[in-house]
Amino acid sequence: MTPKPAVYVLDPYHEAAITTLKCTDWIDLVLWDDPCKGDWHKHAVGVLVRSDTRLTADDFAAASKLRVVVKQGVGVDNIDLAAAKAAGVAVHNTPALNSESVAEFSLALALSLSRRVTESDRRLRRGEKVVRSTTLGLSLFRKTVGVVGMGNIGRVAARKWIGACECRVLAYDPVAPRDVWDRDQIPHTRVDSLDELLEQANIVTLHVPLLDSTKGMIGGRELALMKDRSILINASRGGIVDEKALLEELRKGRIWGAVLDAVEVEPPTLEACRDFLELDNVIITPHIGASTIENQRNSGMAAVRTLLAVLEGKDDVPGKIV
């Protein structure tokens, strides 16, 4: 009798996704809280992960039975793709599903900063008096938003900025086709350089993956190009923004501030982020842009369906990276 393929879920998944796996009688399932989880290298044929687990070259070398890894979400920088390819392991993600929730959260963060929502809340909790005449916010109505990265999240973000604030949209992406947003009839101006976008935008929102080409793409020089009272949003990946340079710029008070749902040390700690957290013109959240009840269910289910389809030998399974 052919043994059932072992599927290991190394990180917590939504209960609906786990129920689907438990009802699949042709796999052997091991969950993240099972003491046997540590033996996954010996037995796993399929693995489900999120951002918390890193899969290195050593992991792939030790996992001789492994056929497929599925990552819930878009970013796969926690997986050594070259090692996976060399080991003959397929890697899939769940593209496009996070777009609505991340774009929504980016807008929420920017408005919270511009209208000084979190600052006022913190001051009230400390027992301070908040004087309205000296706690003026910054309106984002009909301002210019620069969207860096014209993929799924950037596209949805542009629509939300237009719909919520009637913003003028500038877009920059060095690799996207010239007509990528024309098909969706999104009013925008495509710029040819990041510098051009930074010089014109009141809000700069980053929606690019962490690659060698994007690491540190917003540094001291780029921050200096940004307009006075502008806002920087990073809800993509830590490492895209030079945090030391950003801290220096925030302390000057020239730009309005920054909102960061992605930082270099994740999850963010008080020790690692102390200098930022002392400033009122910054908001840091622990990479929760995709963390809605609805999205976690949908993306978890998509990851499970993808893994089962690969194990069943189906062709053209979505989200294949390698």
Automatic annotation (TrEMBL):
Residues 107-289 form the D-isomer specific 2-hydroxyacid dehydrogenase NAD-binding domain. One of its GO terms (molecular function) is NAD binding. The keyword DNA-binding does not apply. Residues 8-315 form the D-isomer specific 2-hydroxyacid dehydrogenase catalytic domain. PROSITE patterns: D_2_HYDROXYACID_DH_1, D_2_HYDROXYACID_DH_2. One of its GO terms (biological process) is amino acid biosynthetic process. Keywords: Amino-acid biosynthesis, NAD, Oxidoreductase. Gene3D superfamilies: NAD(P)-binding Rossmann-like Domain. It comes from the Eukaryota. Coiled coil: none annotated. Belongs to the D-isomer specific 2-hydroxyacid dehydrogenase family. This is D-isomer specific 2-hydroxyacid dehydrogenase, NAD-binding.
